[in-house]
Specification:
The protein is an alpha/beta fold and 282 residues long. It contains ten helices and nine strands. Helix content is 41%, strand content 14%. Helix 9 links the parallel strand 8 and strand 9.
């Protein structure tokens, strides 16, 4: 498989399709007097996180979704953050709450995630959200895993019966995408920093999901000819977790970084916010 024959999985096209489906639903909600609203909570001044929050706010504005930005100083305590989230839980005008990850290290991130009300957990970050994802019952699965599944579906790439290797086991990416692939009848191997002979395992994969947070971590010679490669990483300098050129030379299909998984993740977040407004809005 040469690079020129590799299908580039354009996240922008998938995101456009999702947004097109949302516009009439938002219009119908507004006719009922309900304006879908996403609240983003940002703690501290991490520049990448600030950029992500701004992008999400701009995406809301373009579709006519209201957005509230809650910005808290880096010195915020776990208790103060939980109180802020509970305040949003009690605001009937807010349909979705997104706590931007990561939070400063002194904060108990899990406690903060757990404070998000289930009906407003539009990024599937609570333990209940993860459990419902594992059972295939989630209203709002984690947005990046859901985006990966949306890309596979959009391009009609087969999952059932395929061997998927997920590199990474975070509770908001590696673990839930492993569950979603398993629910779609893939055979799933979840790898991590303690995995022995990782390259040998990746070479068995029909589908590779890279979610490890290390630039160009996945090498070209790890990729089985014809495998599908989904890069969920985003590192400084617009670099993913996959060595793109080297992996594309072997893959049948691959997501670029940027313009791959990222745009679909944001579109999925907007979709979940609209879903929540329809299901739980006044």
């Amino acid at each position: 498989m040469t690079h020129s024959e590799t299908l580039v999985l354009d996240g922008g096209a998938v995101a456009d399709r999702i947004r097109e489906g949302l516009a009439p639903r938002i219009a119908r909600l507004k006719e009922r007097g309900v304006v879908p609203c996403l609240a983003t909570v940002l703690v501290g001044d991490d520049p990448a996180s600030a950029t992500y929050v701004r992008m999400k706010g701009n995406a809301c504005k373009r579709l006519g979704i209201a957005s509230i930005r809650v910005e808290l100083p880096a010195a915020t305590t776990t208790e103060e953050l939980v109180a802020a989230i509970r305040g949003l839980n009690g605001d009937a005008a807010v349909h979705g709450i997104l706590l931007q990850h990561p939070v400063p290290p002194h904060i108990d991130e899990r406690a903060a995630f757990e404070a998000i009300a289930a009906q407003k957990d539009v990024d599937g970050v609570t333990t209940l959200g993860y459990a419902r994802t594992a059972f295939g019952l989630a209203d709002f699965p984690c947005c990046t895993p859901a985006a990966i599944m949306a890309i596979l579906a959009h391009y009609e790439l087969p999952v059932s019966g395929r061997h998927a290797v997920v590199i990474g086991r975070s509770p908001i990416l590696g673990k839930p995408v492993s569950a979603m692939l398993l629910n779609a009848d893939a055979t799933v191997t979840t790898c991590h920093s303690r995995t022995a002979d990782l390259p040998a395992i990746v070479r068995l994969a029909d589908i590779v999901v890279a979610a490890v947070g290390k630039p160009k971590f996945v090498r070209g010679d790890w990729i089985k000819p014809g495998a599908v490669v989904l890069d969920a990483g985003y590192n400084p300098g617009n670099v993913g977790d996959v060595d793109y050129a080297a992996c594309a030379a072997h893959a049948s299909a691959i997501t670029p970084v940027p313009a791959g998984v990222g745009p679909v993740t944001i579109a999925t977040l907007l979709k979940h916010t609209v879903d929540a407004a329809e299901k739980f809005g006044a």
